[in-house]
Specification:
The structure is a homodimer of 113-residue chains. Chain A has 113 residues and is α+β, with helices and mostly antiparallel strands. Chain A has helices at 21-27, 54-71, 98-112; strands at 35-39, 42-50, 76-80, 83-88. The first copy, chain A, has a single domain, classed as Transcriptional coactivator/pterin dehydratase (Gyrase A, domain 2, 2-Layer Sandwich), CATH 3.30.1360.20. In chain A, 35% of the residues lie in helices and 22% in strands. In chain A, a hairpin with a 2-residue loop joins β1 and β2 (42-50). In chain A, 29% of the residues are buried.
Chain lengths: 113, 113
């Protein structure tokens, strides 16, 4: 199977089905350290990344933003001194789409750079 | 009186006094649109800025991060599609210092650019 990080986001239409519970159980273990959060009934993928200072936090934020523009899929990024919290979900369907898992995997790749 | 945006942050020592309630009542009206929030007993200054797209949100985030490094005082910045939420408080004293008001005023200047 093609790894998540090797896939591209596809256009997500409002009538697209969110990731099923069965797919969720299969996909989540592929992502190390990502938590499933639910806010106002909307499932989200979230992970906190640690850095030794603000400059490195901000550099990572910048890389995630570039990924977001390249994939045309945009997360919430919380930048603080020494840590960045990235949250992926799909606004169009108010939940999780395969795009979110692809982007989470690619976010991990950026953190390794 | 020197305007907030014209002042520089000073070093804030752990035994520095937080802004008094009287000063809070005087300073807050100088900042248009900034809300006083209290989280886990810690007072914070917060404002949401709107932008027409992600690129402009991210450009603003970058400018706020540059201000943070220049003042050696670092806010939480939440970057999302079309909006950026900036939260200033002083970790050293778990509350609000005059530095936070100075940086909030300077953040407003960045949003006007």
């Amino acid at each position: 199977m093609t790894q998540l990080k090797q896939q591209q986001c596809t256009v997500c239409r409002p009538d697209a089905a969110p990731v099923s519970d069965a797919d969720l159980d299969r996909l989540l273990p592929e992502l190390a350290g990502w938590q499933l959060e639910e806010r106002d009934g909307v499932k989200q993928l979230e992970k906190q990344f640690r850095f030794p200072n603000y400059a490195q936090s901000m550099a990572f934020t910048q890389r995630v933003a570039e990924l977001a523009e390249a994939e045309d899929h945009h997360p919430a990024i919380l930048t603080e001194w020494g840590r960045v919290t990235v949250t992926w979900w799909t606004h169009t369907i108010n939940g999780l789409h395969i795009n979110d898992f692809i982007c989470a995997a690619k976010t991990d790749q950026l953190a390794e750079q």
